[in-house]
Design goal:
The complex is a heterodimer of chains A (238) and B (300). Chain A has eleven helices and no strands. By secondary structure, chain A is mainly alpha-helical. Chain A has one domain. Chain B has eleven helices and no strands. Chain B starts with a helix and ends with a helix. By secondary structure, chain B is an all-alpha fold. In chain B, α8 packs across α9. Classes of the chains: A mainly alpha (238), B mainly alpha (300). Chains A and B meet through α3, α4, α5 and α9 of A and α3, α5 and α9 of B.
């Protein structure tokens, strides 16, 4: 961890009103949660739909995408990364710092709103709120690491990440059940299922597969990003 | 060294302007309309990576392929199993693949605008006869046309396959036209919304995320609101939820305009009031986006 790199990354992610824009979706989630609670009361089905669909299914991948790629690829894009790489600082430490900022960003803007929305929707019953927040935190960490790696690999990192989230996890996962085994969202759900009371959350991947895969993907993506950053060549804008 | 004639005749102590042979442009001046048309063609080609490096062709062509591949598979299966009707209706195909349309918009709308903003080429455009309105119109038209190519091509493939398989011509022609109408609705609305969001940020990555964020968050919110209002198999009051997101708005509008069979889910219309409201909202959103874009470019 390097505090200066962290500060610069935070500024790049949240500076110039971008932080306010990141607040829009969590605010929408909380607003919907309040509306649902006011009209339907404590409704398990719609709470699961809201927390699973909007929070874990949309907000977490979107935030992971913005913070993971935004932490590094905008600097690669405009070439200012060379000033950072020229400093006497190990590349792996730069990667880990940027990842830590991205994970912190998803925790604050995705996992925390999920917890609040869960508490508003369902109180502390069944441990639903905490379970989904835990799932969101784990999935957000894996997403951030994965998309940070994508950010160092390709200039189209955001689009490639979108293809993974929307096409693989949603579209293909809907038709081909096996595709869900390789879905970060399902790993998060498996974690949520384990943390909540039995039967409160459904997930398609067993916990014994989800946890090792989560850890493996996060560590492997971080290591690969560090290696990739060590031998980075800069390409101009096309 | 010979002294130029102007300098020789000039009184000493005063400056002279030498004629060193610069010539002004004397060819035909093609004017504003031609410039706007050229900008349209160039932007449309660039949105598919034509006239650019191979690397920038990969993504749009991949998405175009992903959009058409299921249509080819559907047609091939329908021909091989000798069905007398396509398993999916033309507008329904577009609704099912609207995620891909959204990804294409998210990937290409920032490319269309943010490069000009980031490298400050916009002021150069406006130092020519091209006006701000021309620029916005040309870019909007190019984005709409690019999306229309993406959405109309699978409809054409399905239609051609249906005719080749000897399915009823009248029914298929009518429904293929509905499909093309839906494709146009998608293109106009998505292009307007995408360009407004993309124009707000000169950074490409944030632009991509912002465009797709607007599309998928609003679609998810529409689905949840639909479930909240009266749930599956309800009275139809939940159809108002269709107005909350671009994709369901287009589905509702095309279902209403083309009198398609009622489906259960967000994006369906059961009453004329919802359809009329959808039409009104469609027009209002498209107009508002155009005005916002004009406002964005006024200060350059």
């Amino acid at each position: 961890m390097n505090p200066t790199v962290a500060r610069l990354t935070v500024h790049g992610l949240l500076g110039r009103r971008r932080g306010l824009l990141l607040l829009v979706v969590p605010a929408l989630l909380l607003l919907l949660a309040v509306l649902v609670r006011a009209t339907k009361g404590q409704d398990h089905d719609i709470a699961v739909q809201l927390l699973g669909g909007l929070a874990l299914g949309t907000l977490v991948p979107l935030l992971g995408l913005i913070s993971g790629t935004g932490a590094i690829s905008s600097e690669i894009d405009d070439g200012s990364i060379v000033y950072l790489l020229a400093k006497p600082e190990p590349r792996w430490r730069i990667t880990v710092t940027k990842l830590a900022v991205a994970v912190g960003c998803t925790a604050v803007f995705a996992a925390l709103p999920t917890l609040l929305a869960g508490l508003v929707l369902y109180g502390t019953a069944d441990g639903l709120a905490v379970a989904y927040a835990l799932g969101a935190l784990a999935a957000g960490t894996a997403y951030s690491a994965l998309f940070l790696l994508l950010g160092t690999l390709t200039r189209h990192a955001v689009v490639a990440g979108l293809m993974y989230c929307l096409v693989w996890e949603s579209l293909v996962g809907n038709f081909v059940h096996g595709a869900r085994t390789l879905s970060v969202q399902q790993w998060g759900l498996a974690l949520a299922r384990a943390a909540a009371d039995p039967g409160a959350v459904t997930a398609d991947v067993p916990l014994s597969a989800a946890v090792p895969l989560l850890v493996l993907v996060t560590l492997a993506a971080t290591a690969a990003a560090a290696v990739r950053l060590a031998g980075l060549t800069l390409a101009g804008e096309e | 060294m010979p002294v130029p004639p102007e300098a020789a005749t000039a009184p000493p102590g005063t400056g002279v302007i030498h004629d060193i042979g610069y010539r002004p442009y004397t060819g035909p001046r093609l004017g504003r309309a031609h410039a706007a048309r050229a900008l349209f063609v160039q932007s449309l080609r660039a949105s598919y990576g034509l006239g650019r490096s191979a690397r920038s062709k990969v993504l749009p062509m991949l998405l175009l392929g992903a959009m058409c591949a299921p249509a080819l598979i559907v047609v091939a299966l329908a021909v091989m199993t000798r069905q007398d009707e396509l398993p999916v209706d033309y507008p329904g195909y577009l609704a099912n693949t609207s995620i891909l349309t959204g990804i294409f918009l998210a990937a290409q709308a920032p490319v269309m605008l943010s490069r000009d903003l980031r490298f400050m080429t916009v002021p150069l455009y406006f130092s020519r006869p091209l006006t701000r309105t021309d620029y916005v119109r040309a870019k909007t038209a190019a984005m709409t046309a690019a999306l229309l190519v993406l959405t109309a091509l699978p409809v054409v493939i399905l239609y051609a396959g249906a005719l080749l398989a000897g399915m009823p011509v009248g029914h298929n022609t009518a429904h293929a036209l509905y499909g093309l109408g839906t494709a146009l609705l998608y293109s106009v609305l998505y292009a307007s919304v995408g360009l407004v969001v993309a124009a707000a940020t000169p950074r490409r990555g944030f632009g991509v995320a912002a465009v797709i964020g607007v599309l998928i968050v609003s679609t998810t919110v529409a689905g949840i609101t639909w479930a909240l209002l009266d749930g599956p198999g309800g009275s139809g009051g939940a159809d108002w939820a269709s107005l909350l997101s671009p994709s369901t708005l287009v589905d509702a509008l095309s279902g209403w305009v083309f009198r398609l069979p009622h489906q259960d889910g967000p994006g369906s219309v059961s009453s004329g009031a919802v359809g009329a409201a959808a039409l009104l909202e469609f027009a209002a959103v498209a107009a508002a986006c155009h005005l916002l874009l004009l406002r964005r470019y006024r200060k350059f």
